[in-house]
Amino acid sequence: MPASRFSLLLLEPGEIYFEDFSVTYTCSTQDSSIPPQRGRLRLCSKSAMFEPTDVKHPILKISLSYCSSVFKEENSIVVQCNQLTEMLANNIVAPYVFLKKTFILKFTFHYATSEECLYRLSQLHRASTLPPKEQQEMMEAIIHSRHARVQFDPCWLEDLHETVQFEAKVIQVSPLVSNPGRVVVTSARLYYQPYNREPWPVMKIRLASDIERVARRRYLLQNSALEIYCKEHCSPKYLFLALDSTSLCDELFKRLEPNNKPNIGLDVATLQWQHGILSNYEYLLFLNSAADRSFNDLTQYPVFPWVVKDFTSANLDLEDPSIYRDLSLPIGALNPNRLKQLLERFNDMPEPRFLYGSHYMAPGFVLFYLARKYPQLVLCLHGGRFDHPDRMFNSLQQTWQNVMNGAADYKELVPEFYDGEGEFLVNYLDINFGHRSSDGRPVQDVELPPWAKSPQELIVKLRQALESEHVSKNLHLWIDLIFGHLQRGTKAIEARNLFHPLCYEGSVDLCTVIDPVTRLMYEIQILEFGQIPRQLFTKPHPARFAGLIPTPLSLMTSPDLQNGSREEEDGVENRTRSWSQSRLCNLQIHTVFHGHKKSVTGLAFYSQNDDVQAVSVSLDGFIKVYKLRNGKQVLSVNPIESNPLTACLCLPESNALLLGTLQNEVALYQIDCCRLDNVASVHDDNVTALGIVKDEKDGNVILASASSDCSVKLWRVHRTCSSSHFRFRPTTDLIAELEHDSSVVSLDFHPGGLKLATGTKEGQVHLWEVPTGLPLDALPGHADEVSAVKFSPDGSKLVTVGHDGLLQVFQVDIDPPQIVVKSEEMVAQDKREDFRCLAWDGLSILLGTARGEMLIFDLVSFKVVRRVQAHAPGALTCIAVAPIVDDLVVVTAGQDGRVCLWGSDAIIP
């Protein structure tokens, strides 16, 4: 038996399909009659449809508004109407045929009685004759009454021992289709049962093994939907469910959350994109998903930018900036003359004002591009007709010209232009779309620009353009317009980026609209006009790092994104990853120094004759200096006899060291002449940590010293007449004193010098303003000592680690700061970690533990990707990455007194 040709796409958008009956159909008109046909009569909210068993015959749609009478005759129903619609004759997708004459249709029932159908059909027919408001009210009452009588059938439970934990009415959303049903969550499965049993009686998803990811979604601008992504073995792969309220959605999400594999966070994804781990295409897909855009909802389909504007040249030179569209402007502002007219209209418009009368992505625009791939969706959207042949997507060049010059054409692109084989550009189904009026040619494949010989070549070149250096440098400007701080409000007006108010979330709360006609009007406008994505960024989006990305330590590729497995990309991304892999995979210990008798407490670097040298200090009171080029120790000195050293750092552009001691002192030591300039008592207890930041205004340095006396003090260290030397006079150079509730054990300056982060022995983390010393924020802390705090190189993030084994990354360039990632999962893997030190490049973190291990923690995959026993016995107390261009040298030190150099053969022989 052939599969059913019936589909919910044959209904009007928003129409509800109820049930079907096995019937024999006959039809007569004034001048002819049709022989009997077997098939199924399908009852819908605005129509009745007859699907013949023989696919040669078309499906017949009887719009109830065209019916003059419905009555019973024996075990049959007779319908008299003045219009019939024929669809899918010979199972071929084609425009519907509308027959306008008087028809008398007779349906004889095989298994049901005619009374069962007559009452329901008569109700729906009566509703179709009422004025719009009464019609909508009666239709809603009919739908509510029918659906309220349908309960979840417990016979569908796979295991009778399952217990129902959640049940609610839902709408399953797919392109142009909203199908009501019930969702049930038990102790083992999620069940979705459509009220009309279409396209299957029930869908079953195992919570433990089938769910890949659950994402929050909007529906009709309300935060009341979920999209469930299932694993490869499941069918279907996606289930988009809209619920009646946000609270019900929250409860369903809570039930599914334990089985959810969460996607990477927004901040982590941005970090990956900046470092080239995510391609531009992947990042845009991620942002669309994070902003509630979904391939299952045509009203919120993913949006991608036009990046190329040259569709006439024989060759496309991707190195030529003139071929690219200006990504800092919305489509509507690219033509100055058109923009001038729009602004004049905007200034004369009453409130609420808007610049653009149409959107950049709506169902009509999606299907404009994809009509050849999804013709049945086009017929559904346009009432059974294709668009006029002259208005179809016939030419990429012509479409770009319309977008640039059209009075109301501001559409962007869909993801299909940058991925796949370009099948949407080819009329592979040989659909009859009509003939163009200009030259009589039939509408076939899309005309390609001269620089693309095939659809595949077009997609490849557009993808190359999207991933080009020029677009990478400017893509953040377009992100600001679509997903960011220029999306709404006064900034949107200034950026010429303002759309109709109904496009924006929060413009109308449908839950408060009581009048059904008004609510329906709002729903239609929201569905047809287009919806602004959820706003993801309230500050300017950071730019991507230019050129070859600075050395990320990460070895891991990104997780899969929404639309398929990751593909390897050419250019910067591969060069970055291969550079990182070749060094970290080969990172090995080359030289071990055993010179210290006690625990090493500090590491620093300075340059001498263009040669980077490492410095270590220890509780044994000694300073030791090592040449990284040849792995030799070149200096060992005890500058302050019988005074253990607790911290060290090198002053910028000099060979001067600042030292912290166990005797409450800070000392200034000149390495080049082995001279101790001064030793000053600056605290009431031992010095635990030091930090410096250069003051760009006068070339001096701000010093922060932390102590077990519960304070941090800020000092100004002055550069002397000799530009390579400094002086430190505590009696006159104190700037501020920062009081804490317990001993301060770690600190770090923001690279910009305006903030200081501190960590205490009892687990508190604080942010302070520099140089005033005013408190800014108290961040979520640790259950034990905060052993290290470090800002990322760009200053946007702060990482903290502690003896409790917790690793936290904060976004600190927003107010208030927020946690980006938190590493409880890693702690649970291997008993309880005890972190003592860290180094990071903003993407990956090197950690030292109390067991003497060095861990490489990758923020891309959020896991430990390498674990090495570096020191024993005792903890790894200090870790640092040497500032050597194009090479990776890591220096570690521990309680065992050893200093170890790790690196590649290119640096350390």
Description:
With 909 residues, this protein is of the alpha+beta class. Among the domains are: 8-138, Pleckstrin-homology domain (PH domain)/Phosphotyrosine-binding domain (PTB) (PH-domain like, Roll); 154-262, PH-domain like; 277-291 and 306-353 and 363-529, Orthogonal Bundle (Neurobeachin, Chain: A, domain 1); 639-739. Helices cover 19% and strands 32% of the residues. It has 16 helices and 45 strands. A nine-stranded antiparallel sheet has the order 5-6-9-1-2-3-4-7-8, covered by helices on one side. Strand 10 and strand 11 form a beta hairpin. Helix 1 runs antiparallel to helix 2 (132-148) and helix 4 (266-274) packs antiparallel against helix 5 (280-290). The radius of gyration is 35 Å and the shape is elongated. The model is unreliable at 547-582 (pLDDT under 50).
Spatial order of strands in the largest sheet = 5-6-9-1-2-3-4-7-8
Supply the helix-strand structural class. alpha+beta
What is the CATH architecture assignment of the domain at 277-291 and 306-353 and 363-529? Orthogonal Bundle
CATH class of the domain at 277-291 and 306-353 and 363-529: Mainly Alpha
Alpha-carbon distance between the termini? 76 Å
